[in-house]
Design goal:
With 300 residues, the chain is α/β, with parallel strands linked by helices. Helices cover 49% and strands 15% of the residues. The chain folds into two domains: 242 residues, TIM Barrel; 51 residues, no CATH class.
């Protein structure tokens, strides 16, 4: 058994549906995010912050990490690339506040492994339990997509993966469109690599913030491909994404009925049975359990 995969089987997926990006430089937007229905808040120190504001944004993020955690939301920080000094400063500043996870931009295997080593050292210095701060590599380059499995299996700190379509399509020199057909291959590669390691698989944001119908179609498509959640860049996107990634009552009731039939089949010594004209075996039973588990966690 792959050691990485064996370890991860002990860690359930978060079942988070929405990940809201908030500029680390905006106190107003961070405070507003505390009252929104997003499952996770991503404090962004990278693209959303002007170079002249990096230090101030870093100080603001440090002050707000514990406040966001106290609100019951997951707090994630997207740091700057460690290929520049801001990335190192970001890591050193935030470790003592123990964000739940860190997004690694422009992720490749060497960068992820270097951050893992830096965190090992920083956690010791700050009295943080080793390995507590987890990682979400951001796959936003052609190399990142093609080497996705190697990247995602490079350290046990990784519990999720995010696709970044804007930088990817820029590198590919192709147009980014509302339909998203141009990123189908990248989406599939991200999902297969992430799912094979039992990670949260987080889709790229939908950048057309006034197009609700387009957001619905894009989110439904992402879910149908295997993504477990989606990032958002505007508060108005949260409810739509949450609804699509939440099992419906009909799905939950059907899953409960199927599991009830499974218990009856077990009493008869059967491991395979027919439910509503469908042959049911172990994978379908497990999928029904996951639907109920996700629904119950969301509704808590």
């Amino acid at each position: 058994m792959n050691k990485r995969k064996g370890v991860l089987k002990l860690n359930k997926q978060s079942f988070n549906r929405t990940y809201l990006y908030v500029p680390g430089s905006s106190v107003k937007m961070i405070n507003k995010a505390l009252d929104l229905e997003t499952d996770s808040i991503i404090l962004d120190l990278e693209d959303a912050v002007a170079p002249s504001d990096k230090e101030e944004a870093r100080n603001t993020v440090v002050k707000y990490i514990s406040k966001i955690k106290d609100s019951g939301k997951e707090v994630i920080v997207r740091i700057n690339s460690i290929r520049e000094e801001h990335g190192y400063f970001d890591l050193e500043a935030i470790v003592s506040e123990e964000p739940n996870r860190i997004i690694v931009p422009e992720a490749d295997e060497s960068i992820v492994q270097e951050i893992d080593l830096l965190l090992n050292s920083a956690e010791v210095r700050h009295g943080v339990k080793k390995g507590k701060i987890r990682l979400i590599p951001l796959l936003e380059t052609a190399s990142g997509i093609m080497n996705s499995y190697k990247i995602l299996s490079s350290t046990d700190r990784i519990t999720g993966v995010q696709l970044g379509a804007e930088d990817l399509t820029k590198e590919l020199e192709i147009e980014r469109t509302p339909t998203g057909n141009e990123i189908d291959y990248a989406r599939v590669m991200t999902v297969y690599a992430g799912k094979s390691l039992n990670l949260d698989v987080i889709d790229t944001p939908y950048v057309y913030i006034k197009d609700d119908e387009g957001l619905k179609l894009d989110t439904v498509k992402a879910k149908s491909m295997g993504f477990t959640a989606k990032t958002c860049i505007h508060p108005n996107q949260i409810n739509i994404i949450n609804e699509i990634f939440t099992p419906t009552k009909e799905e939950v009731n059907s899953a409960k009925d199927l599991l009830s039939e499974y218990e009856k089949a077990k009493e008869k010594g059967k491991s395979v049975f027919v439910y509503n004209g469908q042959m049911v075996d172990a994978p379908i039973i497990e999928r029904s359990r996951l639907i109920i588990e996700k629904y119950n966690k969301i509704r808590k």
